[in-house]
Amino acid sequence: MRPIKPIAARFFYTLLLCLLFPFIFFKLLWRARLQPEYLQHIAERFGFYNTLSPTLSRKTGEGANESLREFSNPAIIWLHAVSVGETRATVSLVEQLCRDYPHHQILLTHTTPTGRATSEQLYGERVLRVYLPYDYPFAVQRFLRHFQPQLGMLMETEIWFNLIHACEKNHVPLLLLNARMSEKSARGYGRFATLTHHALRALSGIAAQTETDAQRLAALGGMNISLMGNLKFDIVPPKEMLALGKVLREQFGATRKVFLAASTREGEEELLLHAWQAASPQALLVLVPRHPQRFDAVAELIKKRGLKLQRRSENKTVSPDTQVLLGDSMGEMFAYYAAVDVAFIGGSLLPFGGQNLIEACAVGTPVLIGNHTFNFADATRLAIDAGAAQRVSDADELVQVVTNLFGNANTLSVMRTAGLRFVASHQGATNKAMQLIERHLPSV
């Protein structure tokens, strides 16, 4: 049997997308039940955008970048960050781009409302932000025609076949930065071997996080692959978040032990609460679900168990008899990490693949992590090897280890120091990314 050609493979891929077209609106409506923001900016998801002039006119006002005042339509540097984690990882890179390319306008594209909201929190009007369109040829072509980026960058594992093909056809250099490819993702892309092979070869460059990621990308057809490390190590805890952490610590109780369960996923809260209630510790449990649309559901779960609850949104001193504080706020994770004694990183008790543990280590917070960390396998392994994190097998063991750590100040101190050293020793990804960018971005 003759292998299918890329143009034919892309045709059938696009045909499948067309068949799914009517279901897009049902999906948006379904997600909007819990997060109404999914019904905002829908036109952008199909490549229809407002002109740049409103944002640029604000930028040319009081306090704007002086160099941008000379340009009514500055060249675009485009960076795609799907959701919250990817957006937060862009901080050091965006700051460096703003310094090195002051005559350019940074465009951030997102897929989720939470990613978009995070971008607004981090950058305000310093960047443009829109949704990246769905991977229909007409939509991605409109996107490229409207913004005409001089350079595009996709973060982590974003391989969209029509988008990459359109960038190649329109001579837009496109990089895959901070690239990672888990074993599970590699198997998935391997099922579309022709499309994946052609797409990876059409990229202008790939900068992988680890040697393992680079090998998997190469096996799928990637070329021009280099190693850059992980941008998430280059993040600097914002001073205002560290200051807020001190405020939160006073609210929690300066002498009370505090355990944070961060970025928990559906099903994990119930396991945690059951184990926590069974152990009856005097410490405060701070529970921060990963997705804000689940805040109310988790609050009900806590109440049904008869546990005394307060919410962060109340912004009050935590009562000594409060057992659980629900972290129902956005953009304050650094403050939570800075305010607690030990943190568990959610998404790892159940097979969700884990979440980023680097932010906790960056403020010197001892970390506990479950068995399911395939999305952050290398960072988790390195943190454990460095003594900054410990792995637990289930919720009962998690609570037992937390209790033991609360009684061992020396171990906590050693883990705090190890976390800070762990992060510092793996920094430098931003500089490597900038070296790759400089080779593909036309100078002004």
Supply the CATH architecture of the largest domain: 3-Layer(aba) Sandwich
- Sheet with most strands: strand arrangement: 3-2-1-4-5-6-7
The stretches of 5 or more residues where confidence is low (pLDDT under 50) are: 53-71
CATH C-level class of the largest domain: Alpha Beta
Describe what you observe in this structure.
Helices cover 47% and strands 15% of the residues. It has 444 residues and is of the alpha/beta class. It folds into two domains: 237 residues, 3-Layer(aba) Sandwich (Rossmann fold); 187 residues, Glycogen Phosphorylase B (Rossmann fold, 3-Layer(aba) Sandwich). A seven-stranded parallel beta sheet has the order 3-2-1-4-5-6-7, sandwiched between helices. Strand 6, helix 10 and strand 7 form a beta-alpha-beta unit. Helix 6 crosses helix 7 and helix 12 crosses helix 17. 43% of the residues are buried. About 4% of the residues have low confidence.
